[in-house]
Design a protein that fits this description.
The chain has 5 helices and 16 strands. It is an alpha+beta fold and 281 residues long. It has 2 domains: 148 residues, CAP (Pathogenesis-related Protein p14a, 3-Layer(aba) Sandwich), CATH 3.40.33.10; 97 residues, Immunoglobulin-like (Sandwich). Strand 11 and strand 12 form a beta hairpin.
Length: 281
């Protein structure tokens, strides 16, 4: 088992008090190459993670396909480039928040565990997975990610690897707190403004809000329908630079919000290129 420090990027808390002839562009998640993994080992790892969480009275994690691709990519990269670290030597892919952003994901609460286990003898996927899990649980920083009550989704990437004559696995776990089921963002240009349409679903009893910062600052409260569905439009004047939009949740229409999603809109770019995610904290 190789240890590595916990990586944790939190969206933080923002407080409201402190803080036409249309062209429609639909912005789907960015295309990401499909990475394979040791699928049976990944399922077993999820079972082990959830058994540990349930034992502590925590809700189980749900495997997230998009975050699994992020995790698998990092495991494959560590294998192919022969390194073991949270920090990738590939430019623009250096941190887990950037890797998440590069996959087109707007979630900002993320944590990452990496691990490895190598043994002599025939390759034994189940044994290696259990040993890798035990090693992670023995490390306070990795255990903290596994038992973090805020996390509710995980991506797991396990690849087979060798070290000399030893058979082993490389493991990446990418955790996230996904509270807002955000649909692909769309931008409508009406000439003077870029109209950013946000829609999706919120947990029952929650109020959402969008904090906008750039040439001007604004807060847009978002009232969901009874079934949790929401839709709103954020108007940004064209040619006024880059705006950062942060979506948060709270118990009231106004007041504090925990931030869960973050992305940028550059009104100096064409409507097709205005939306981007930079993976910064």
């Amino acid at each position: 088992m190789y240890d590595a420090p916990r990586t944790d990027n939190r969206g933080g808390r923002d407080v409201y008090a402190r803080l036409s002839a249309a062209v429609l562009v639909l912005l789907p998640a960015m295309a990401v190459a499909a990475y394979s993994g040791e699928a049976e080992a990944e399922v077993l790892m999820l079972e082990l993670l959830n058994a540990a969480r349930i034992e502590e009275g925590l809700s189980p994690l749900v495997m997230d396909p998009a975050f699994t691709q992020v995790a698998r990519q990092h495991s494959w990269e560590m294998k192919n480039l022969d390194y073991f670290s949270h920090e990738s030597p590939v430019p623009g892919n250096d941190t887990v928040p950037r890797r998440v952003a590069n996959a087109g994901l707007t979630e900002v609460w993320v944590g990452e565990n990496i691990g490895a286990d190598y043994r002599s003898g025939p390759y034994d996927r189940e044994k290696l997975t259990r040993l890798a899990f035990e090693g992670l649980m023995d490390s306070p920083s990795h255990r903290a990610n596994i038992l973090d009550p805020d996390f509710n989704r995980v991506g797991i990437g396990i690849v087979r690897a060798t070290r000399g004559s030893l058979e082993g696995i490389l493991v990446t776990q990418v955790f996230t707190a996904k509270r807002i089921e955000l649909n692909p963002v769309s931008i409508v240009s009406d000439g003077a403004f870029y109209n950013v349409k946000l829609s999706g679903w919120l947990p029952a009893g929650s109020w959402a809000g969008c904090f906008v910062s750039g040439a001007t600052a604004d807060f847009v409260p978002i009232k969901p329908e009874p079934d949790g569905f929401f839709a709103t439009i954020i108007k940004l004047r064209r040619g006024t630079g880059t705006y950062t939009l942060k979506l948060g949740l709270g118990p009231d229409e106004y007041g504090s919000k925990d931030i869960f999603n973050r992305f940028n809109v550059d009104t100096d770019r064409s409507v097709k290129e205005a939306f981007y995610i930079d993976g910064s904290s």
